[in-house]
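Q: Got one fold?
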Amino acid sequence: MSDDTTARRKDSHLDLCASAEVEPVENSTLLECVDLVHCAMPELAIEEIDTSASLFGKALRFPLVVTGMTGGTERAARVNRDLAELAEAHGLAFGVGSQRAMSEDPSRAATFRVRDVAPRTVVIGNIGLRQAAALGEDGVRRLADSIGADGLALHLNVGQELTQPEGDRDFRAGYRTVSGLAKVFQDRLLVKETGCGISPSVARKLVDCGVRTLDISGLGGTSWVRVEELRSQGVAQEVGRAFSGWGIPTAAAVVSVRRTLGPEVTLIASGGIRTGLDVLKALALGADLAGMALPIFRALQDGGKAGANRAVESILTGLKHGLLLTGSRDVAQLRRASKVISGRLKDWLAAL
């Protein structure tokens, strides 16, 4: 595939994510099936709330990742830099989108480099599983090192690739690739889905390969199958439409993976996380951090850096308020707080 094809696809993805219906209304994170019990007497002041977290051995002020979304074009470079600067200002982690474009054309590397605007916070590189297999372990390491990344996100996107007209169709030897990268990156490797979730059985195998950080990226937010459906025609579009609701809901993936692996893994919950209350619920269910991209990107598109900053402040303020309203000084206390799980989430957890 030519580097121009990859770059054009990235700008197409941004166009669709900026305005199209890429979050099918019938899809759900199932976070609505989680209720946290109100504490009328929290015996806390808001300034006592501790939202600190860490990732790849670096401290964060909040347990939030601005997850990887784009790169490879001038437009994508502006988005990356604006969002990385925002992450730096608030003490969040930041991930670039797939570095496939710069692997095909090294001149595009500058569109992924954000260290000058985010010198201290966690920066996460990004490459797909199939591209990683083709590049080899040294090639992937060079990609991450060339942008000063603290770690690498290896993304799994079978559903998207199958729907994408120019996507991959061969997904063999994936665990072998993961094992090799885990030896190279060790605790700096993050394996993430892209909106279809990670099951407990797959999570177990990934940890057995040496992975210590997972982003379950479940169903309920941006459907990359839907994004590719909107780019497709004919049979591919019809099949993509049928599968745009495919996946494990975010809440179900978080609970089941944590229940299976316990403290063996650092767990990031993304996929439909839109508010501070969503972050609160994901953390209460067992996630160490939450991740989001679309709401912050859309706020950036609609209101510039000021609009994106306001959106982030709303999310972080909501998280702090939720911690106080559950009587939780920090995330560790939040996990012990009373919660009610009902509806379809109970059915999913019984099946998983």
Summary: The domain at 3-32+56-315 is CATH 3.20.20.70 (TIM Barrel). DSSP finds 14 helices and twelve strands in the chain.
